[in-house]
Amino acid sequence: MQRKKISFAILSAILGLGTLLSGCGGTEEITSTTSGNSQGQSGQFATKMKISMFNQGTFNAAAPVPPREEDIQRQMLEEEMNIDLEMMIPQAGQATTKLNTLIAGGDIPDLIFLKSRADLAQYYDQGVLADLTPYMDQFPELQKRFGTDSWEAMSYQGKTIGVPGYDNVNGISRSFFIRNDWLKKLNMEVPTTPDELFEVMKAFTEKDPDGNGKNDTYGFIGGMNKEGNLQTYGFDSLMWMFGVNPPSAVEIKDNEPVFLFIDPKMKEALAYINKMMAAKVVDPDWVTMNSPDLLDQKMFKGRVGFMIRDARRLEPDYQQKMKEISGEVPEWIVIPPMKGPYGDQIVERKSFQGNSWAISAKADEEKIIRILSMLNYLFTDEEAYPNFAYGIKGIHWDVVDGKIKNKTSELSKEMKEKYLWVDHYRMPRRGDDAEYFSFQNPKTAEAFKDNQQYVGPTLPGNLLTPDPSDTLDADRTRFINESLVKFMTGKEPLSNWDNFLQTLDTKFDMQKYKETAIQQFKEAGLIK
C-alpha cells in the first residue's frame, strides 16, 4: 500500500481576518446564505433540512439519546439552524464497524465525528468525505476558534477536509506535585532548577521527612507503559527539563528536523536520571509502574515526595483516598516545572488535534453550508456555550452573582444519571475552561490555570505517518526505547552513546526514517 502523503493548507497571519489560504487551485468561490458570524443565524435558512450526525465524539457513549421534547440542546440546534437533527451514538468499541457498514450500504451520515487524522485521510481518499476548502473563508469565527496547529491537522493534500472536533485538555494531567510538608520540615524551598530538584529528592530520600524513623521514603517515582515506552509516566517530564523527549518527538528548527530522542541534549537528560538512579532517590518499584492507577497508589501511600500526576488529585475524592490508605492527607502542592539549562520550562506539549468533524461527499453545497453554520454556532456562540459545555440551565449550571456557575459536581447521583445524555453535546467546551471541570478544590483550578503557561506547542512530528515500506519501523522504535531505559538505569554506560547512534544507522536504517520525515515535512510545507 502506497504511503499517503500529508500536505497542509497554510494558515497565514490573516487567519484572524477570516481568510484561509488553500492549495486547491481554480476552485470557484461558493457564496453562502449566511455570514461567518455565529450571531443571528436563526431565520436565515428558510427551508428546513434534515441532518444526520454520526457522533462518536460523545463523552458518554452509554447514555441513550433522549426524545426530542426532552433534548434541550438538540432543540437549540434545530431552531437556530432550521433543521431536523438525527443523531446516532455508536456503542463504545463498535464505532468503526458501524460507520463502515453505513458507508458500504451507501447511507453515509451527513456529519461524521472521527477520532483520528488517519481515519480522516483514509475516508477522504475513499471518496467518502467532502472538500471543505471552498467554504471555510466564510466562517472566520470558526477558524479563529481553533489554533493553527489544529487546522493544519485538518488539511490533507492541500485541502481542508475537516473541522476540529473538540479541544484536547492540556495542563492538568501532567502536573508537578511535591510534598510541601516535607519541604517545610527539612527547611527547603520549592525547587526551580534540575540541580535544586535533585537536592530536594535526595533529602526526601535520606533525611526521614515523615519522621517515622524508618528508611522508607523516596524522592521520586515514575514508570513506563507495558510496551516499554517512557512517555506520560514521569521520566519524560524530567527529560523536558533538557528540551528533549522519547520517540517520536521531532521538532523543526532552521528548516531541518530535529529528532529529540537522539539529540545530544538527550544524553544530558539521561545522565541526570542516571544520577538519580545511582543516588537511589527513585523508588525501585518504578519498574512495575505500568499503569496510572499504580502510580496513584504510590501517591496515596505517601512515601514519595515528588511525582508527575494529574492536578485533580487535589480534589476531595482523591484526598479521601489518601486518608484511607495512608492515614493522612499529605500537603501536596502543584509547582511550576523546573527551568532547564537551555531555558526549557515545559509541563507538556499541546496534544495533537486528531479528532475532527467531517462532512459527507454526498452533501450538496446547501447542506455543507448548513452543517458548517451549525458547527460555527456550536463552537463560537458565547450565549449558547454554557448550554452545550455545562448542560441544562437550572440543573447543571446557573448564573450566580452575575457569573456562570457550573453546578454539576453538586448534583446527586440520581440527577447525574438522569441527565447523562448531555454528554453528547459537550464538544464545544474549551480545553482551558476550569469552570467546565467544576473543580471543588480552588487549588485544583489554580494549578490548572497556572500550568497553561507551561504547555508547549504541538510537535510537528505528530503529523508524520509511518512509511509502509519501512519494515524496520517497529523494531527501531523498540530499540530506541530499550536503549534509553538502559542508559538511564546504568545498565548501558553513557560512554556507549555513540555506539547507540551508530547501531541505529547501521542496523535499523535511521537514515530512511530521517528521509521519510524530511519528505513528509516538505509535502506539508513545513520544510522548504
From TrEMBL:
Output the Gene3D superfamilies linked to this UniProt entry.
Periplasmic binding protein-like II
Q: Which domain of life is it from?
A: Bacteria
Sorted UniProt keywords: Cell membrane, Lipoprotein, Membrane, Palmitate, Signal
Cell membrane found in the keyword field = yes
- Signal sequence bounds: 1-22
Record's protein name: Aldouronate transport system substrate-binding protein
Q: Which organism is it from?
A: Paenibacillus xylanexedens
